């Protein structure tokens, strides 16, 4: 179908089929974000909140901290990652389409929090960054197939409540365009199953 | 009471009283995080998840983005904020105890997301950073009176589900030590009420 008709086609077929797109080798259900308002106002559709598609990249992430006194020691690497990591050459060489590059640096009342994938982590001196439970790796669930609107409500709740019910710990990081959840590496299979189930049958979740 | 006895005192009095601490002029309920395990294993207490105390600082935040091509134009300011903003002198002069300094810079697949308070925002050139709905300001709810453990589950869900039920949009930012929610400035009163109600009567939430 034509690119411009895709959303209408999906919203039509959605009634009858479960629609998936392949993301990094995993089938992820896709739902239309662009259903005209008229459709959503009719009957049962109106009370179902939009279930956002998710993307589960292959790379592994770590959540780390750093003694603020040692910040000068990583300054060069940090500046390198922040300002010089977007060259197309590096992108093509080091990461496939099934990875999401995500690097976050937060300064909160004097303490430092970092989120990065294992590839970025290797650029930093190993002895300065620490995790709380050593070596724990996290997988990302990015919520939304296209940038989320500012007025969307309950996007994180759609994921956080089922994860809490399943006793799975998670980090949530909302950014300008997307919401992200980080879940423990060992839970990613059950999280993927849960999300696929939720997207097949939103009413049951 | 002595500082070291505070948690025991709170856990004892909690049975009979609602305990508040004043945070930035607003009364925020406080619950003990250090209840000995023995207490939590008895009867009804065991099935109640810990309801984490919250802190609601007075400062206002913005969630912004930036054209990656203009990143060099803010590089000096960014380096200044990241590496030189922790001097005690500035802390004392510019922020009271009822503010939480929070600055976050994220680089995600080539796009940039920034979260900062309005004070930090004033350091940046006004024409380069943009918000999605212009001028929207957010208030922070920091979850946890002391750093949260890695193994805690459902912390964000405790807040995100009631906010979603009330149709309040929010950003969630988990860091190494705390979870944070950003809610629209105009909703902070109803969010505060909701959180206080939740903490008075966890079973009803």
UniProtKB/TrEMBL annotation, chains A, B:
Family matches, as Gene3D superfamilies: VC0802-like
Gene Ontology MF annotations: arginine binding
GO biological process: negative regulation of TORC1 signaling
InterPro entries, per database record: ACT-like_dom_sf (IPR045865), CASTOR1_ACT-like (IPR049479), CASTOR_ACT_dom (IPR027795), CASTOR_mTORC1 (IPR051719)
Domain Cytosolic arginine sensor for mTORC1 subunit 1/2 ACT-like: 52-133
CASTOR ACT domain location: 134-196
UniProt-recorded name of the protein: GATS-like protein 3
Species, as recorded: Champsocephalus gunnari (Mackerel icefish)
